[in-house]
Design goal:
Helix content is 0%, strand content 34%. The chain has no helices and 22 strands. A four-stranded antiparallel beta sheet has the order 8-9-17-16, with no helix packed on it. It has a two-stranded antiparallel ribbon with strand order 1-2. It has a two-stranded antiparallel sheet with strand order 3-4. Strand 8 and strand 9 form a beta hairpin. The model has no long low-confidence stretch (mean pLDDT 93).
């Protein structure tokens, strides 16, 4: 199908009937090629087969619903236009960061770093970055690569992700993963077939609910210890010996001796 100068030839005359656009002469109907519900799939004329790819709704502009600007999109699993962090469930709880409007990697949380914040855009149905607002989470190479990046929004299938059972899942079934199961700074984030290990599990934590990391003297609930508060490690064995360091390397238990080791 194409747009052409008006000439009223039979190939430009259509009627709308039973939710189909039907050519007046050959009775072929407007059809989404291959029945693929993907951004930029070509549209064609085809024999009437009654499939959903040939069914259309006419929505007049004066009665059309406006795009929602807030609320929860249950199909994609995100709140609309509400910035959030994608926080890994690996021990260091790092977050996904868009670096230089291109690569996406794992980083420690930093206060007020908007490149670490994402939001679901109801219009494009993509995960946009809160620093580069014209850029969305994207599978490189038009979906042919496993590498993940942040690039100009286009709403093609390689930019459509759902949050489902702690997975960030693309339309084609692959999920967001920390490469090599390595919990380290600047580690690449990629796409991989789901296997359920911890390097594929993410928490979506909205910025307005984020408590930040505990400061000095505060309890880190994930690790069970107070931050920057010096302590001894004492054995529960009868003599209550202390964990100690010898030869600047080896750990042993010893009677309390007041040493910093």
């Amino acid at each position: 199908m194409q747009i052409w100068s008006t000439n009223s030839g039979w190939f430009q005359v259509f009627k709308y009937q039973n939710n189909q656009f039907i050519n007046w002469s050959n009775n072929k109907v407007l059809d989404v090629r291959g029945g693929k519900d993907e951004e930029a799939t070509p549209v064609q004329m085809w024999g009437n087969n009654g499939s959903k790819a040939q069914i259309w709704n006419v929505v007049y502009i004066d009665t059309a619903d406006k795009d929602r600007t807030k609320g929860f999109n249950k199909d994609f699993g995100f709140h609309i236009n509400r910035p959030f962090y994608l926080r890994s469930r690996m021990p260091m709880k790092r977050v996904a960061e868009c670096h230089g409007a291109n690569n996406v990697w794992l980083k420690r949380w930093r206060k007020n770093t908007t490149a670490q914040q994402w939001y679901f855009d109801e219009v494009s149905k993509t995960l946009k970055n809160n620093h580069w607002k014209s850029h969305s989470l994207d599978i490189q190479g038009n979906g042919t690569s496993n590498n993940v990046r942040c690039t100009t929004t286009n709403s093609r299938w390689w930019q459509l992700f759902r949050y489902e059972n702690r997975f960030i899942k693309n339309e084609r079934g692959k999920v967001l993963e920390i490469q090599g199961n390595v919990d380290a700074e600047n580690r690449n984030i990629i796409m991989h077939a789901p296997h359920g290990r911890i390097n594929q599990l993410w928490d979506v934590i909205y910025v307005d609910e984020w408590k930040g990391e505990p400061g000095k003297g505060e309890l880190n609930e994930d690790f069970g210890l107070y931050v920057e508060r010096t302590f001894y490690v004492v054995s529960a064995l009868n003599d209550g010996r202390y964990l100690d360091l010898i030869n600047n390397r080896n750990m042993v238990i010893k009677t309390s001796n007041g040493r910093n080791t």
